[in-house]
Specification:
This protein has 712 residues and is of the alpha+beta class. The chain folds into 3 domains: 156 residues, Aldehyde oxidase/xanthine dehydrogenase, molybdopterin binding domain (Aldehyde Oxidoreductase, domain 4, 2-Layer Sandwich); 165 residues, Aldehyde oxidase/xanthine dehydrogenase, molybdopterin binding domain (Aldehyde Oxidoreductase, domain 4, 2-Layer Sandwich); 274 residues, Aldehyde Oxidoreductase, domain 4. The chain contains 18 helices and 28 strands. The strands form 8 sheets. A 7-stranded mixed β-sheet has the order 9-10-7-17-14-15-16, with helices on both faces. α2 packs parallel to α3, α6 packs antiparallel against α7 and α13 runs parallel beside α17. The longest helix has 28 residues. The radius of gyration is 27 Å and the shape is globular.
Length: 712
């Protein structure tokens, strides 16, 4: 197999030596800018490299997210890690393998076809040559541009890819030593930062004497503008100081959030930048059908969400001899490096970021903010290692927030009660205020400085990169006329940003709920109705497989209060396909009892890893639609603990069955976010069937159910 188009990561980092080296006898170093955030990506990359190089997986050493040696690969996000980062590693390793074989064939004056490789050792006609990658490395210059033309292996010859290898990252996690929160260097300086209650608030007063007294130990107080940090050798002392300061600080000015922020009426009332995109879909859409004249309309909404990472944000930094080293669980080490340098007025070459795994990462959480905090404080404490750990209260108060959305769907039906005209209208603040997005630093600590980095005009992620609020807004169904109206709200008084799936899961919830509503009008089974709007064989197979493994058409009777629902999407309409059936029980609360998921991810590198990703998406999708909501009071986030921001508990995780559709000759597709939207939609549709009434405004809490049932 030969690649005709280089992946973006390889275009940005075209030199082979940026990716691979044979530094240690018997070991291959593979460098990547993508990072491990629980998705098993380092194991998958090891498999890809070992397969193409014909070495054993244990001979591969992965270096990930260390900006002094790793290629710059943007963020680990959007389900691009395997499809872009992994594809780059595959092409690099295939080319390096070919370079060595061509050189050896030239030296031996034999056809390349007579040569093979086993565990890095070269063989001719199956017999060892006493040569390997390491003995020949001086003969091959890897400081050359990748061509992308070397043939990669055929899937039929794979020995490692497609197998489930033990996860490389799990042993240390089981031992409790894998995470950045576990790093404890000697003579470290602990630090906590006082957070502003809302954006642009000014610190009017703080009783420093009371704060020092409450610490019950020596601390130092650093203040520049509205950035206030407490530092000391005792973590307990600085924690006490920060807790008391949070209670004593008096703030004024800024942009407090109204209590009703995020409600559909609030969203629709905001000033917005508007655009309309129209297109058509093939299939039945090409037919000229007579309209029935009936127009159906429904308004769906989702609230603001937060990241709720199990481990709070942590970072370490050291400023020494004019150079800054930062250890962070960021999803974009090279982006963080660049924007730390800009925010701190340093040369980029003087900043190095080392990725270390964090206990929870689902988008633009507080990892980058903690990194700025540690870096800024370190520049004021030269020669010392500074460790910043966010308390749980700050995680809720000051984290970037996943934005609320209002989604209105309208369809005019034809004579067969199929959509002849389809419009989706979306009101949403932007889903991307990561560092670097829109040319902004977007560190909450930097915003508090006397001369904060200037903020450029906000925009959302463009459609060609998957979109933010418009992600998955274009329904995958065959529709004759498809219109997306996007109202981007740039002036929301919150730092809204990227959470797993961005706008996709809410759009899928709305679209799939609306499809169920149209199926009910047509008097058809929801899956049968979907299949009537799907002509692509690959798409149909995923839907049919989910129906088959769940026994959808068997019509088995369910206990009272129980029902099943269906949800389907192709993530971003370019990544993996996933169809989900959820069985729920509705009493005082909603409980998901069982979930079936069929997915097509093309060539699957690790089946176990793929299932892990789908299961994680199912659990998160259930938590999103059933429980999660950020509330506001007094101008600020009102959630402070798990008690008032519940997430799905371990005891509430349903039984899950996954069916991976085998497609090894298709490109590997991003899988990490594929099941989130379909799961939420399946749960919403199941709840509607159980109640006999649809809940369009999330989450599906007891209070929301009661309000919906009492509305009539």
């Amino acid at each position: 197999m030969i690649s005709n188009t280089l992946p973006l990561s390889l275009i940005d980092n075209p030199i082979l030596s940026q990716w691979i080296a044979f530094e240690e006898q018997g070991r291959v170093r593979i460098a990547t800018g993508k990072v491990e955030i629980g998705q098993g990506i380092l194991t998958a990359f090891t498999q890809i490299a070992a397969e193409e190089l014909d070495v054993a997986p244990e001979q591969v050493r992965i270096v990930s997210g260390e900006t002094n040696v790793s290629p710059s690969e943007y963020f680990t996000s959007g389900s691009y890690s395997v499809s872009v980062g992994g594809a780059s590693i595959r092409l690099v390793c295939a080319e390096v393998r070919s370079l060595f074989l061509d050189r050896l064939a030239e030296a031996l004056k034999c056809p390349v076809g007579e040569l093979s490789i086993e565990n890095g050792q070269f063989l001719r006609a199956g017999k060892p040559l006493n040569k390997d990658y390491w003995s020949m490395k001086g003969e091959i210059a890897l400081e050359r541009r990748a061509s992308g033309t070397a043939p990669t292996k055929s899937p039929s010859k794979y020995r490692i890819v497609g197998k489930s290898l033990p996860r490389l990252d799990l042993p240390a996690k089981v031992k409790g030593s894998a995470f950045i929160q576990d790093i404890a260097p000697e003579n470290v300086v602990h630090a906590r930062v006082l957070r502003r209650p809302w954006r642009h608030a000014r610190l009017a007063a703080l009783d420093e004497t009371a704060v020092r007294k409450a610490a019950k130990g020596p601390i130092e107080l650093l203040r520049e503008g509205d950035f206030v940090a407490f530092t000391g050798a005792s973590e307990i002392a600085v924690s006490r100081a920060a807790e008391v300061a949070r209670a004593l600080a008096r703030w004024e000015g800024g942009t407090p959030a109204p209590d009703d922020i995020g409600e559909p009426a609030w969203l629709k009332a905001q000033a917005s930048r508007d655009r309309t995109v129209e297109n058509g879909q093939p299939g039945r859409a090409q037919e000229d059908r007579t309209k029935s004249g009936r127009t159906v309309q429904a308004l769906y909404s989702r609230p603001f969400l937060t990241y709720a990472s199990i481990g709070t944000a942590c970072a370490l930094a050291e400023f020494k001899d004019g150079a800054l080293s930062v250890w962070s669980h960021t999803q974009g080490p090279s982006i963080l490096r660049d924007w730390l340098a800009r925010a701190l007025g340093m040369e980029t070459a003087k900043v190095t970021v080392f990725h270390r795994q964090g206990a929870g990462a689902y988008g633009h959480n507080t990892a980058d903010d903690a990194a700025f905090d540690a870096a800024f404080i370190a520049t004021r404490m030269s020669g010392r290692t500074v460790r910043v750990l966010w308390p749980r209260e700050d995680e809720f108060l000051a984290a970037p927030i996943s934005t609320a959305m209002a989604i209105e769907l309208r369809a005019t039906l034809d004579a067969d009660n199929k959509p002849a005209d389809w419009t989706i209208e979306i009101w949403s603040p932007p889903h991307a205020q990561r560092p670097g997005m829109n040319g902004n630093a977007n560190f909450t600590g930097a915003e508090a400085l006397p001369n904060p980095p200037p903020q450029k005009e906000l925009s959302d992620i463009p459609d060609e990169r998957g979109g933010g609020a418009t992600r998955n807004a274009f329904a995958i169904y065959d529709l004759p006329r498809h219109r997306v109206i996007h109202h981007m709200i740039p002036g929301a008084p919150l730092r809204t940003s990227s959470l797993r799936g961005l706008g996709a899961w809410a759009n899928v919830y709305a679209i799939e709920g609306f499809i169920d509503e149209l199926a009910e009008i047509a008097g058809e089974d929801p899956v049968t109705y979907r299949l009537s709007l799907l002509s692509d064989p690959r798409t149909r197979k995923v839907v049919e497989t989910a129906a088959q493994i769940s026994g959808w058409f068997e019509r088995r009777p369910l206990p009272e209060g129980c029902a099943r629902g269906f949800g389907f999407a192709r993530y971003k309409n370019i990544a993996s396909f996933a169809a989900v059936v959820a069985e729920v029980e509705v009493n005082e609360d909603v409980r998901v009892k069982r979930v079936w998921c069929a997915a097509d991810a093309g060539l699957v590198i690790s089946p176990d890893g793929a299932k892990n990703q789908l299961e994680g998406g199912i659990i998160m999708g259930a938590s999103f639609v059933m429980k999660e909501r950020v509330n506001f009071a007094g101008g600020r986030v009102a959630n402070a603990t798990w008690a008032d921001y519940p997430i799905l508990r371990f005891s509430e995780v349903p039984e899950i069955e996954i069916a991976l559709i085998d497609n090894p000759n298709e490109p590997t597709l991003g899988l990490g976010e594929a099941s989130v939207g379909p799961t939420g939609a399946a749960i919403g549709n199941a709840v509607a069937r159980a109640l006999g009434k649809r809940i369009r405004n999330l989450p599906l809490t007891r209070e929301r159910i009661a309000a919906t049932l009492l509305a009539d």
